Amino acid sequence: MAFDGVFEAVDRIGGEPISARMARKAPIRHLDPTLLLTTLMLSAFGALMVLSATASQQEAAGLDPGTYFKRQLAYMAAGALLLLFVSFFDYRHFRGFAPFIYAATVIALIVVLTPLGDVQSGARRWIDFGAFQAQPSELAKIAVIVTVAAWLAERKTEVNAVDVAICGGLVAVPAVLIYLEPDLGTMIVFAALLGALLLVGGAKLRHFLALGAVGVVLVATVLQAGLLEDYQLKRITAFLDPNPDVQSVGYNLAQSEIAIGSGGITGKGLQGEKTQTTLDFVPEQHTDFIFTAVGEQLGFVGSAVLLVLFAFLIWRALRIANLSRDLFGTLVAAGIGTLWAFQLFVNVGMTMGIMPITGIPLPFVSFGGSSLLTNYLAVGLLLNIHMRRFL
Amino acid sequence: MAQRPGTLGVDRVTLRLAVLGVLIVAAFVGLFSRLWFLQVLASEQYEELARENRVRTVQSEPPRGQILDRNGTALVRNRLSLAVTIDRQVVQGRALTSKVLRRLEKILEVPARLMRIRLNDATVSPYKPVVVATDITIEQANAIRERQNRFPGVTVQKVPLRTYPFGPMAAVTLGYVGEISDENLKSEHFKGAKPPYAPGDIVGKAGIEYFYDRLLRGTPQLDRMIVNSAGDVVETHPVRDENPGDDLYLSLDAGIQKVAEEALAAGLAAARSEFNAPAAAAVVMDPTNGEVLALASNPTYDPEMLADGISFKEFDSLGGRTPDDPDDDALLNRAIQAQRAPGSTFKVVTAGAALGHDIIDPYVRLECPGSAVYPPEGGPGSVLFRNWTSTYFGFIDLPTSLEISCDTFYYELGWRMEEAWGPYNEGDRSERFQKYMRMAGFGHETGIDLPNEADGVVPDVAWCKRNEDLGYCPEGWLPGYTVNMAIGQGALVVTPIQMAVTYSAIANGGTVWEPRLALKLVRNDEDEEEVVREFRARSAARLPLDPTEIAMIREGLERVVSGSEGTARGAFAGFPLDLYPIAGKTGTAERGETGLNDSWFVSYGPSDDPRYVVSVYVEEAGHGGETAAPIARQIWEGIFGLDKVTLVRLGQDFSG
User: Fold this and answer.
1) In degrees, to the nearest 5, what angle opens at C-alpha B641 toward C-alphas B640 and B646?
2) Quick check: A351 and A282 in contact, CB under 8 A?
3) Mutual orientation of helices B10-36 and A184-201 as an angle, nearest 10°?
4) Does the distance separating the beta carbons of B234 and A344 come in below 8 Å?
5) Average of pLDDT values for A75-91?
6) For residue B60, which of B217, B247, B231, B227 has the smallest C-alpha distance?
7) What would the DSSP string read from start to end of B472-532?
8) DSSP secondary structure code for residue B625 in this structure
9) For burial by CB atoms within 10 Å, which of A390, B253, B360, B544 has the most?
10) What is the pTM of this model?
11) b/e map of B513-549 (b: 16 or more CB within 10 Å)?
12) Which residues of A touch B21 (CB under 8 A)?
């Protein structure tokens, strides 16, 4: 007690004891429980839908109906560990590591294209590690966000044409590699990320106009040169066609809309029998078309709950972007928010026939380890930014 | 707002984040509105689509009811046939289809081309296996079953098929079955049935099979199946059990039908030595109750080749060889569909009209000259009407006019009726002749229980007006039309069944029947027969003739056969008329200016207590006494069981 006064004098800054100040600013005290809770609820929701979408087929095939569900739960557990790990280090270190992260990602994307890459459904998107397959294009989304954010943070919102070009180039390299897999959907996600990061990072209207012009020229060139596969074109145009060929390209879309539409207001229930879901009418339902299971079994109410959860999640991301103590954090958070919002819109939009069919998963809900881990990693980054907004 | 180190415009970043936020909110609005549309506004429609996706209704093919004659002799029954079916949900795509069909072709020796036509038939429900071959052998069935993996979607199963113990007998009357067509489904005949008709159902396509399809069809077993996206059946719910169709007894007498058809065939064969004689028809009817005992038409076809409903080529051959000329169309039931001028057989109708409305009394004597001019005063527009012979017969009575078939006698009746009831009279007095004809069964369907019966034509002023465009009655109605009609010529056309009906009325004292083929409907329930419905002919009208008037007509008709001058005397020479007195009337109908005559003979017997009416008509085959009467005679011999094996001989008849 005798020394108290002495230390107190030394420790005091602006009338507050340093220890108290330190304690107040301690990252652990600035967790974002809303974000964590929303993440948990969304991924639990997703795991449940994966179970519902796969159980009957698994059972019919004489397999454990919970196979996919259990794997998704395992991915969630791994994701949680990753989340903790990522939020532990100060995110600003990532800024320094950005060039290495970027390089590693590009190398991984190249490896995928080599014979080391694993081919599924005609696309080289995976690296087979035996026990599991990793999809580097998922992780590349975060890598690109961090890299571009790092670059733009340096410019302190004073962005010029050269910066825009460099950012475009930074995005283009992985995007082209992913296009070669081919994975048109993910490539388009990259374009959206670039736009959002430039918007928040301080690009001018003329930069966007220029980028838009380049985009148009690129698309025209791709179409002209016939670089798109026939099926890709058909999938893109199928949703514009009021009378698509329901037996082939339009089949997914037709079955998907039927599933969602027939769900009605309250849905057919998770135990609902003889639904589009349990009778396996919707292809790829546990992955890209998981929203159809939500729509059919839980109806408008369940779908709305899912969308509201996403709204919460994205709101938290943008809020963290705004609260961040530096531009890097702002950009990373805004990029992550955009990533989720864009994927949500394209994925749910495609199941309802307002967006073309592309292989983009629904974050946290679609079955798939790479996607889930990437999204947990993103949540970890957001938490990290939120926790350290006073340091 | 926290100060971001290294930023210049804090608020600018917040503003830019807000822009991003607005974009994201817009995306959410888009998603929610589409979701609202799908799940709230259009949900019902999508629910329906989802149901269609997963629910398949599958029907069995219930055995149809048998069709029997009045004595219980089966005319149409069922047999089980080994058939090959292909499930089009399994066999899809050009390559697989070709492969499967080629393999089947080798085993079944049915051309793949024919099976493919069948397979591509869009009217068959895609969920119903398509029958591509019937009556395959056990060896063929085993060849398929043993290598089932080479025949995906191919099944060998037993299907009930129609079989006809008497072959082509009564084919056009009994009809045939086949898969229900789109037109069938839309038609009144098949609407509102319980259970409703569905694509792929086997139904009657013609004749009795068509007319009484609802009674014969039975109720198929109905299973509702839930299928998954692969088309595999997940579960089956029986909805309804199978009920075989009821057995229908007809008034037809197989023995008489057989005799009638043999007589037609023999008569045509004999007539072809002199005439074209492409076709003929005969009706045998019971004048006491309107039941039809035989309904024969020639040419005809073998229904066995339509039994499986897949022999398209053969079916085509049944139609007319010359599409515009129905003469050789084997599917026509001439007994109810041939519409021809009746010639002199119609004189009983003219006499009836004149007697019934007191134009003449039964004892009238009229002159029978070789020809007569109408109007009698002559002048411009007058026409000379000739008798069939130039001989002058003097004044004759009504029975004699029928016996010798005096045309001028009936011209006079026609002229008198035209004067009394010409179309320019008012109300009830106008066109009474035509009104009598309609009452006697002409100008409309007789109402027999068969589809597509012909109306015939009773010409009158309205008919003239309706057919102006076709070039009829260029000068409007002329009195000569009535004069001509009186001997069964002109635009007047009738069907053999109509003649049978009107002669029944003469034979039974005046009752005009709506003839009936169906007798009773019998349900077989666990070997117990139960009559569930009985059919009776309805009386359509009564002729306004008193017994004396009818007696005079009947006396004339008896003398046609047995009188010394009778036009059918030659045809019935040697017939035991003392035991089986027959009465009838020959008819020789001129076909326009072609010089070809249709031959008619309508008769009833025994004439003192008529039990049968026989109406025979032969197309382009000379005089009534020449061809039709000998055919009728053979039918009469058959009816009375006369042990005679003489073939039909052409008779002598030169009357009109």
Assistant:
1) 110
2) no
3) 140
4) no
5) 91
6) B217
7) --BTB--HHHHHHHTTT-TT-BB-HHHHHHHHHHHHHTSEEEE-B-EEEEEEEETTEEEEE
8) I
9) B253
10) 0.62
11) bbbbbbbbbbbeeeeeeeeeeebebeebbebebeeeb
12) 318
- Size (chain A), residues: 391
Q: Token pair of A135, please?
A: 């999809």
Whether chain A has a CB inside 8 Å of the CB on B233: the answer is no
Which of A125-129, A188-192, A378-382, B546-550 is the least confident region? A125-129
By Cβ distance, the residue of A158, A300, A326 closest to B4 is A326
* pLDDT, mean of residues A127-135: 70
∠ CA B327-B449-B189, rounded to 5° = 95
- Looking at residue A271, what DSSP letter applies? T
- For B242-300, give the secondary structure using H, E and C: CECCCEEEECCCHHHHHHHHHHHHHHHHHHCCCCCCCCEEEEEECCCCCEEEEEEEECC
Chain A nearest C-alpha distance from B120 (Å): 18
A176 phi-psi bin (left φ>0, alpha ψ -120 to 50, beta other): alpha
For residue B351, what are its two tokens?
A: 């006499």
Residue written as token pair 């009188």: B563
B191 token code pair: 């609407």
Residue recorded with tokens 């798939």 = A368
Tokens (6 digits) for A79 = 């994701």
Which residues lie below 8 Å from residue B480, measured CB to CB, with a gap of 6+? B374, B383, B385
> Which two structure tokens, joined as six digits, stand for A301?
């109410």
Per-residue pLDDT at A180: 84
**Rounded-to-integer distance, Cα B87 and Cα B82, Å:** 16
- The predicted complex's ipTM stands at 0.89
Is B17 close to A330, i.e. CB distance below 8 A?
Answer: yes
Is the peptide bond prior to B606 cis by the omega test (within 30 degrees of 0)? yes
For chain B, first and last CA: distance in Å? 121
Per-residue model confidence (pLDDT) at position B94: 76
Within chain B, which residues score under 50 in pLDDT?
1-9, 310-314, 319-327, 647
